[in-house]
Amino acid sequence: MKNVCLSAIFMFFVLGVAPVCGAAEKKYLVMVVDAQNANPSQETMDLLKKYPGIKFAMGWPASIVPGKEITGLVRDKRIEIALRLDNEPVLPLLFETRLSSPVPVDFSWPQDINDIIFRNQHEFRRAWNFFTDSAWDTFPAGLFLRSGAFSTKLVPALGKLGFRWVLGGKLSSLENGVYVKDGLYIMANDQVDGLSPADCWNRIIASPGRVVVISGSERVLLNPAMLGFLGARLKENPAIIPVTPAQLIKKHHELVVNLGDSHAESDLAPWIKRPEILVKLSRLRRDIEQYKNSGRAQLKTLDALRDNIYSLYRFDTLARVMDTGQGEDERRFQTAVRNAYHLLRLPLPADDAPADSAPSDNDGTEYTQFIEVGNSGFVITNSNVTSSMMPLKSFAVTVSTETVLYKVALSTGASKNDFVVDIYMDLNGKRGAGFSSFLPGVAASLRPEDAWEFALRLQKNEAILYRYGRAGPIPIRTFRTVVAGEINLPRTLLRGNPMLWAYQAIVLNSPSGATDTWLVKDFLSADVELRSNAGRTTNMRLPFIRLEDK
Tens digits of per-residue pLDDT, 188-245? Predict the structure, then answer.
């Protein structure tokens, strides 16, 4: 025992790693990983095979189809899957918010929580269809909240939706650990994104409780350095035992604290800094409800309005709007509100009207006067200068209940068979999250702050849909096209409101006829001078077009 302790002391002072010395009391480690937008890398899967003792829960997006290796680990009970919501709202805020601020707020739409979660559950179960029907009532049992925003007021609603546990984030008056209230288990966790492997391990060791809950993104907790380090430390310290939430609840229930009548809630300060934003949201939601019950509501309009308001509920969108004042996020928020009132065919409330009509960007390459927004779509029209050298006339998006129609119009005399058209889409509005380069072979790129998650390539009689992947663009489906330059995509393929995304459409050709080199002939921009440089240079940086309906 003496030699073991000396070795542990050496680890602490020389390596900076906290030791576990002697016959330590068993401590249970619950790791909850955000899967983000893709299956883990092969290197990660190889390390999980090397360290079979590592177990964890994983928040999985509803729209991502799992790979065979992930489903195998789920079957072996090494990974427990939790639902990670697309367009996650601030659940406590949506459930009930009453602020006696200078601008009073009375905001409560719990039915939207039910609808958002139900839709995500439906998509999730379609993606994980290897389970039998008998498992649907209990899978997934967990709810992963990226926002860390939770309140015990939500317990009855989440229980009715079939959840057994929830990752609750930092909760007032609760230490790190696992709690239960009215049958719902609450994981009060520490976020470890930004920590080094050694610091993460030291936090696990230093936690005073017998249950430690940590969470982080897949790129942090499952990167090779972190996974290898934790795997080695856990092997050296058998008193620390990784378990999934289900295993802890079933086998170590004595370590779960019953909250009884106690109430706990996350700090909602990031989402209530500007009560006037919540007032606008509440008013818009009320107007949508009145339209729904008016007797004149159309299903496709309600669908578009639902996607619109749900995108505004997003925890990250709302936090940025609360922080940035009159910045880009504020303008995008106001644009979404104005688009919703277009759909409702109602006048824009006076305090929602734009203060001026100045261009939204500062580089002279984007203007808004060439964007026309309608009830169920929009058209981006290039300047009236079009020719065989600048052939892109317009780009249109039309949204229906079942599909999204993308349509590219070329100038008179330009043959669509002579060109290839790429359409790039930014769905999440996060600058730099995705690819700034275009599909392989395209002699141009986006500006460094822009990025795309999905792309369409239209050529002759087919369209290929690509998505972002760590190693490069991944083709996910090929469609036959009936009309050149047009493609109808099912709404289920791309989640969210297409009227709120950013776009760029590029006309390409290959002078040599090769398919590995593409020159940009034209693209979307109101700046004629910028467009005239197409084809003259191979290092152009193009802007995304972000809708700003005046």
Answer: 988 899 899 999 999 999 988 899 999 998 889 998 999 999 999 999 999 999 999 9
Buried b (16+ CB within 10 A) or exposed e, 19-53: bbbeeeeebbbbbbbbbbbbbbbeebbebbeeeee
Q: Count Cα neighbours of 474 within 13 Å in the Cβ-side half-sphere.
A: 11
| H or E element, residue 319 | helix 315-324
C-alpha–C-alpha distance, residues 154 and 141, integer Å: 16
Q: What is the pairing mode between strands 79-84 and 97-99?
A: unpaired
What's the pLDDT tens digit per position in 466-524?
Answer: 988 877 888 999 998 888 889 989 887 887 788 888 899 999 887 666 667 788 888 98
CATH of 24-96+108-258, one of 3.20.110.20, 3.40.50.300, 2.40.30.10, 1.10.240.10: 3.20.110.20
Q: Which amino acid is located at 29 in the chain?
A: L
Tell me if 485 sits within 8 A of 416, measured CB to CB. yes
Q: Are 255 and 28 in contact (CB under 8 A)?
A: yes
Distance CA 499, CA 191 (A): 34
Residues near 542 by beta carbon (within 8 Å), at least 6 away in sequence = 444, 445, 446, 447, 504, 506, 520, 523, 525
Task: Give the count of alpha carbons within 13 A of 437, CB side only.
Answer: 11
Tokens read off for 5: 């302790």
In total, the chain counts a number of residues equal to: 550
